[in-house]
Amino acid sequence: DPGNLGNGYKEKDIALKVVLAIGKALEKDPSIKVIYTRKTDVLVDLFVRGKIANKANADLFVSVHCDSHTSKAYGAGTFVLGTHRNQTNFEVAKKENSVIFMEEDYEKNYAGFDPNSPESVMSILLSQEEYLDQSIHLASLIQKRFTGKLNRKNRKVKQAGFIVLHQTVMPSVLVELGFLTNKKEGAYLNSKKGQQQMANAIKEAILQYKASLDINVSDYDIVENTNQSNNLNLDNIVFKVQIAASSKALDTKPYNFKGLNTISRSKEGRLYKYFYGNSSDYEQIKKMDQEAKSKGYSSSFIVAFKDGKKIALVDALKSITN
User: Fold this and answer.
1) Residue 72 burial (CB < 10 Å; 0-12/13-18/19+)?
2) What is the DSSP letter of 272?
3) I need a labelling partner for 166 at 20 to 30 A (CA). Which of 52, 227, 250, 307 fits?
């Protein structure tokens, strides 16, 4: 699949070069294992890309593309799986999803999924809901670097029904680096400098995202401040493991959560958040986080509450060491 060919540039080549640069940089971190859906000029079916990530029990899925438009549109955007907020988002997803028509047995592999049907796209959303918060978090970090460091036009974090994201069971984002159909932006993305800069921005965002999940007391320089009037009372702090988020209000019984007990639920906006465990002992909650991951909640993470209200984990950890 050549992708779009705006101004004679090839999306397939630009996207691959950017991905290889991201991977090369991330591989320098011994705690990160990078898995590619392709490293050469080959077509990998959309459903296979998800299978590769799922089989590897990956913690994160990042899909990189270049956009096109009949206008002089330009700018970088990052998508997570969700409903189409407008026709433009639907058209972007439809364009990316249409590659399935190049695949053999696509009707069987996608169970009748029709990229041209909004109703068909709506049906794929539920599987990613529990990872939506973290997907949006990573997408936001990517956009901040595109706009803050590289001064790219901010096309923001958006939601749309990309089937490649639907195929994964982990936090997932799809990055549109920019528009090859825009003469200036196409030339930038086709340049070695542009590709390296965009790759670095994505790499840095991934590392920051990972750091936010790997948070540990030893990562922080705790400075005692006797003038701090809002010191946290450790007795009122509890830790929980967030394992899922959904628009559905599920019964907090073990059979709904892979056998896990002590499940609690809270509603934030339109989503219900589900938590495993409840302890003032951070070491204990870390063990419960590992248990949740062993049950299949690979994107679980620890959150903290004070007097029933969520607080920043770093603030809770600071209170432990004081």
Assistant:
1) exposed
2) E
3) 250
